[in-house]
Amino acid sequence: MSALNIKKGASSHSAYDLRSTFGDTIERHTLAVIVENEPGVLARVIGLFAGRGYNIESLTVAEIDHTGHLSRITIVTTGTPQVIVQIKAQLGRIVPVHEVHDLTVDGPSVERELALLKVAGQGEARVEALRLADIFRASVVDSTLQSFVFEITGTPEKIDAFSELMRPLGLQEVARTGVAALARGKESHV
Amino acid sequence: MTKTMTGAKMVVQALIDQGVEVVFGYPGGAVLPIYDEIFQQNSIQHVLVRHEQGAVHAAEGYARSTGKPGVALVTSGPGATNAVTGLTDALLDSIPIVVLTGQVPTFMIGTDGFQEADTVGITRPCTKHNWLVKDTDKLANTIHEAFHVATSGRPGPVLIDIPKDVQFANGTYSEKSKRKSHYAPQVKGDIAMITELAEAMAKAKRPLFYTGGGVINSGPAASQLLRELVEATGFPITSTLMGLGCYPASGPAWLGMLGMHGTYEANLAMHGCDLMINIGARFDDRITGRLDAFSPKSTKAHIDIDASSINKVIQVDMPILGDVAHVLEDLLKVWKAQGRKTEKESVAKWWKQINEWRAKDCLGFTQDGPIIRPQYALSRLEALTKDHDRYITTEVGQHQMWAAQYLGFEDPNRWMTSGGLGTMGYGTPASIGVQMAHRDSLVINVAGEASWLMNMQEMGTAMQYRLPVKQFILNNERLGMVRQWQQLLHGERYSQSWSEALPDFVKLAEAFGAKGIRCDNPDDLDEAIKEMIAYDGPVIFDCLVEKHENCFPMIPSGKAHNEMLLANAQVQGSITATGAVLV
Q1: Residues 6+ positions from B101 with CB-CB distance below 8 Å
Q2: Boundaries of each ACT domain copy (chain A) (predicted)?
Q3: Cβ separation B124–A44 shorter than 8 A
Q4: Are B345 and B233 a contacting pair, CB within 8 Å?
Q5: CA dihedral for B131, B136, B141, B146, sign (positive or negative)
């Protein structure tokens, strides 16, 4: 189905994109929301999801344009196609929201997440952890005689896989950033 | 030339620059500097309400009856929290209002100071947008931006929270023309889709216009264009509660209101049409009834300025994102330029069918016996006031539905009611807001006694400002709509739905210094209504009506349009357990 992607102020935009061909399957979508970095803007976005009962699987936010005071919120959400369209429309009408992009339907995109994992252990388990870290291209950012902190970057699935492997080897703690995502190719959103 | 002034003065200056003439408000510690500035000027009239909820509803009444944004000014903490119901009401009905709240000084925010509340936090989900202004230099621009946001796109309430130190501090005033904003919703509809709609209209055999509050919000031009379109096509037209007046009730194509308590002909036309043209309505649950049986055979077009209204509950075939007036203008142009003709024979057949439904006379009643029936009271009110320059507000409940059924509206902006939120206590303060904007018009609040008591303190406001609002109370000593649902759904167990210890409304009127009129006899009703109209001042009209009258027609919850009930006899067992869950 085509995405609802109406740029504010764009009068020539075709409303054909609003046509619905909805199904009942639950889909996972990655949304990039460009917002004015003003107080409360994150609360507005999160409040929308909480108030209307939408899911947030992952959410990251940081200012990306310090002169223009624009932030990029990357939200991974799930829902039926109808719900996904509603989410985008509801996001679009928040006043400080400049743009809403659905990276899942706009074309190919790359998604990356960073995670830090603390693994404690000795002997063979410690060696095995280090070997697996090497396979996953995780780097060691802290080390004691009893522990490592690994830094790993990749898709959420890769991080899931790495965490699962670390679990029997003494995984103590995980910190994940949530997903950052960009469309592939030369076109840019901001 | 830059102008330096205090934040408080800036507030007043910005309101003047925005063309504000009336502010409804209530002072308190955190807005004292602003009130000091209001004292020292004559451009803006301040109306002192008796409760902050009243201020917001009055601003709504003002806004709905003029098309201009309404303004309310209240203090921090309880002042702001009392405004929440009005804000939510305005959000649900898309009414442009600007609410200014005082706040504790910036250095006290977060300390649980006296009369401190997280106003922007509390009102975030019940405003279109809100701002906490921490810098006096940004205050004027924020107010200008607030008016822009409230009135652009889908209108709605906005709130500006102003800490007291920001009001005292000096800053640079920025002119209205210097406002910078990225907020510019799309108003022109997609011309290809509009052309497709025109084609569908030319081919339609059973077409229907389904209009809503968006037509009124779009401005008088939208109503005018709608009337031209209806005339050009000869298609029947119905409207939601919020859209009454966009097409004249006396017009030949008018089917009456649709929905839960809409007319038989309007609802069956919705069910049976083959082309539904939704103009500025939002497929509310009061309209659709059971979703999977909603207008099953129709192709649906939807004109709306809010993308999130499109395909929210009902999937449509021709979505047109844009402002109603702009889209209708283009639609009429396309229709005329292409010399479009309707399927005359089929549409005539459709009208024949509609007229058969009309012949049911679903709103018919007989006034027999010595007790006034509410339908009779409103029919007489209609007959005796329709030739006046008249504005109607209502409270919420049975009387509201009867008012929508039995009063006729010829023009937009004449009908002020709480549709989306269903706020009891809306009508009295709204009537005050309307009367402030239209000093010489006849403003009537059609009320039930229970709703009316919720904001009756505003009679004091009406007295103070010599606002001759007429409070027309259909008194059944019951919470009528609650009682009706208990009868239909809860085995006639009337839990807490009657009003004991009601005041003597005539004495109450006199206590306020207003006029009280009581009528309990159908034969006296006309004279009593005439006396109410003739009186130059506020009136509380206590109309004692049949206590157990039910509001029909009614689509029971969980049912489809073609399953509507016309009278009490059909009620038994009509609502299933799943239907009972719905409100």
Answers
A1: B30, B31, B74, B75, B76, B79, B80, B83, B119, B159, B160, B161, B162
A2: 30-105
A3: yes
A4: no
A5: positive
Reading phi first (left if > 0) and then psi (alpha if -120 to 50, else beta), residue A159 is in alpha
B481 is catalytic: yes
Superfamily of domain B191-358: TPP-binding domain (3.40.50.1220)
What is the SS3 assignment for B396?
coil
Residue B572 pLDDT level (bands cut at 50, 70, 90)? low
DSSP characters for B68-84?
A: SPEEEEE-STHHHHHTH
Q: Chain B: residue nearest A83 by CA?
A: B312
- Same topology, domains A15-107 and A110-183? Answer is yes
Beta strand B318-321 with B390-394: parallel, antiparallel or unpaired?
unpaired
Whether residue B308 contacts residue B283, with contact meaning beta carbons closer than 8 Å, is answered with no
Question: Is CATH 3.30.70.260 what the domain over A15-107 is classified as, yes or no?
Answer: yes
CATH 3.40.50.2000 fits A110-183, yes or no: no
B154, B184, B320 ranked by CB distance to A15: nearest: B320
Average pLDDT value for residue range B28-46: 98
Please tell me the predicted confidence (pLDDT) of residue A19. 42
- Cβ contact A16–B193 (<8 Å): yes
Alpha-carbon span B352 to B338, nearest angstrom: 28
